[in-house]
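Changelog entry: the Chloroplastic/mitochondrial record was regenerated in this release. Current contents:
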Amino acid sequence: MGVMDLRLGDCIPEAGEKKCCCCCCSCTFFVVFILLLTSFQQVNRLNAGLLRNGFTGEVNLERSYLPGRYFVGFWHEFLHFPTTLNTIEFADEAVEDGVQMLGKLRSRDKDGKQIWLDVSVQYRIYPQELPQIYREMTKLYEDVYISELRGALQRVTNEFTIDQAWKDYATVQKKMHDICKEVLTVRHADCWGLQLWGIRLQVEYENQLIRTQVRKQAEETALARQTQTTYRQKTEVILAEYVANVTVIQQKGQADKQRIERDAVSAARSALVTAQGEVLNLVRGIVKVNATDTVPERLMTGSDLAKYQRVLMFKEKALSNFELKNAGV
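Regenerated structure tokens:
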């Protein structure tokens, strides 16, 4: 007979005493297995835990446990504490799941004005300090944080006037964040962030503040317009100076152009006269008057040179009716 062909009846003895013994062993094994299985307890992700005796309710404050599975015995269980960011919100608006509805933070500013603030705080507990947290506050630590933060934030708002929240918002928020860190650090938590996102005053103060801000804005607007007008006038004066300079430069350029053209024409004419004088000197030295019966060959006189020039001028006139013989040469 093979192992796969065995049946449950084949493994149980037929004798009564043997059957009873086998059943007891099986039950004992099953119970031990269940106890061993339940002896492993888990700390959930994003949580830290403290070990508590399930029978006596006593909590072990010797150490805290990070996420994971631990062999602690079936008589123990873990108390879980979230290690993620948690929110405390002082506001009247609807909050997210798991956040208490606390209402606005009511206080007074440095001048004694009644104010209501919307403030959100994000905190995170230190997992390694869970024993101290439970020893001092059990699992009601958030209620302690809310109470102490409310008092501390009310005190810090007494140090500044409410208009500073608009004029110097960064400084006001930093003061509130610093006091939040101071309060939560001694309570084994980190004040990760704080946002001051709403401010309300009594109606008469709000109306007065609005009127003051409107008047200041009107003054700033008038000053800006005056400054703009001044710069516009200065710009127009500078522009007029540039236009005048451009006109002067253009006129001077035109005059320089005409002067240069006149100088060029005069220089050209002078060069032409000089060249013509040099040519005439060459002609006087080279060209000679032919000899006649009564007059020998000779150089040209001034009168001859003038006739020579007239002949040349006549040659340049294609439509001239004069002939060379009329020149008397």
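The first strand starts at residue 40 and ends at 43.
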